[in-house]
Amino acid sequence: MKSIKRRALILLAALLPFTNAGAVTTPEIVASTLNYGCVQWRLDGICIWLTCTPYGCSTSTSMKVSHYNPETVVSGYGHTGFNPWREVMFYSQATPTADGMGYLTAQNKRRNNLANFKNADVIGHPGSISDMGFSMLCDRTTTSFQPYFLSTLDYYAWRWGITEQIYPASYIRGLREMAPYITGNNWGNIFPRQGYLVQPDDYKVGAVIAQRAADITSNIASPHVYQTTQGAGYQGYWPPGPVMEMNPLNHKWQGLHPYVEPFCYIFPTALSGTVEENHGYAWALWRPYSCCQQAGQRLIYFSPHAYF
User: Vertex 285, ends 279 and 287: CA angle to 5°?
Assistant: First the structure.
């Protein structure tokens, strides 16, 4: 059923007209997954399984592997309706409550205290590592092309920020920021998770907006209109927990627009990226998974999870 739905969405996307000529395309995003530096596949140990029948019990083993999967494509962009991922632009068209553009930063660089607004979309990555046909790969929790968060539908929370004003991280300096305030390289605060940020560097605004959107969708009880990407673990399958900024052990980013980047990293990076002329950015969000093939009725032992 998932494969039928995926093919239908791809066909629909191919038939629709688009005007964002400078956007990244689905084939480019799929091709970007062929990157061992981002996948980081490795043999992580063993799993021991127990099988019991009326004639007795026996054990068997299977290999435990770990690697990163590209879960979603996360976009932060100023012009409503112009997601930098071309084939999904129609997901977030302007509405009466979400219209126009939000680039409010003054052109005078001395005036850098104005809020910069960006829309955000979190959509299932079209390229799945687990679809490559190899047995020692872990399934991801997301579905290609499925929207998990569209800020145009999250009007009150994303454009007004009224649902998270009482969170301590929304008003206490130093909590949930990229990076710690004392470093002098603070890109911005994660809370409140809304579309506005006071930051003169447009690329950094896009990065913080993407981090906020990833934080929303990777949690279960965020006060927003969204669908969580967090999946439940089971015997022999361990998906990642919520995204945490600056933690390279539970997520990393790969730039897709304005350029497809051949490497992965976390925010904040040492240098700011390229400012896109239409103020739109997109990244692939990679997340770590561990799994082993089922080789019995009950999992009785597995090698401890190693850090990437």
Answer: 165
